[in-house]
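Students often ask why inverse folding is considered easier than folding. One informal answer: many sequences map to the same fold, so there is more than one right answer. In these notes we will look at a single instance of the problem. The structure comes first.
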């Protein structure tokens, strides 16, 4: 079996395990339709999951349900590389915010995640973490006007940031007017609870800061950009780390 097929199957099994722990009833046919594969493929996945020691139960007969013991997985959590990176970066952000609540065990979780990466992957994660900054809390005035960006915008921005890929965005300016921009999402800045993307704006050929909740649409271009040093964005950081 090709490496790509093996990776795809393992990722599908991880998602399948998470799906089976939900309270929503599942059937082999329903799971096949949900994951876009045949019932035979799902049955093979379930058999392999059992062989790996996962307690998958199934009711016999037509339409029988499939489930995974809810208690399974504690201490044996299987995360994809992308999921582990997202979790590790979220922990880093929480630690930078220095909130005393629920942080007692984050250091141990972080160490276990880092230990699961190869040295090369650890270097990649460190580079990502260095591009995420936490500034002062947004003013009450700013917070009153904040709305969450759409899921599609978040996904496009997230992937473009990780892959260093240029984005075409439709942006609503402070005066309400819309503009089309091609940007390089170089850094992310959190001024709780507002996220900003610090970017090289090709329209202005200069550094600009965009509030993520004002991005109306975002489309990846497939074109990579070169990471610029923080000094290139010194004026933007000096303003945005202090003011709103």
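Output (designed amino acids):
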């Amino acid at each position: 079996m090709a490496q790509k097929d093996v990776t795809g199957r393992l990722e599908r099994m991880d998602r399948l395990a998470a799906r089976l722990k939900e309270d929503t009833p599942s059937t082999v046919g329903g799971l096949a339709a949900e994951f876009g594969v045949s019932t035979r493929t799902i049955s093979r996945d379930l058999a392999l999951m059992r062989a790996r020691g996962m307690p998958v139960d199934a009711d016999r007969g037509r339409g029988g349900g499939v489930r995974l013991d809810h208690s399974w997985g504690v201490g044996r959590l299987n995360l994809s590389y992308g999921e582990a990176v997202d979790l590790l970066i979220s922990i880093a952000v929480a630690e930078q915010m220095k909130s005393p609540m629920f942080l007692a065990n984050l250091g141990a979780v972080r160490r276990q995640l880092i230990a699961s990466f190869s040295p090369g992957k650890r270097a990649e994660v460190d580079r990502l973490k260095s591009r995420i900054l936490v500034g002062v809390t947004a003013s009450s005035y700013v917070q009153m006007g904040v709305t969450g960006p759409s899921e599609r915008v978040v996904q496009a921005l997230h992937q473009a940031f990780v892959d260093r890929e240029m984005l075409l965005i439709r942006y609503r300016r402070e005066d309400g007017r819309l503009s089309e921009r091609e940007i390089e999402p170089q850094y992310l800045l959190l001024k709780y609870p507002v996220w900003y993307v610090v970017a090289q704006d090709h329209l202005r050929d200069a550094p600009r800061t965009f509030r993520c909740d004002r991005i109306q649409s975002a489309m990846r271009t497939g074109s990579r950009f070169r990471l610029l040093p923080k000094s290139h964005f010194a004026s933007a950081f000096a303003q945005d780390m202090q003011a709103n």
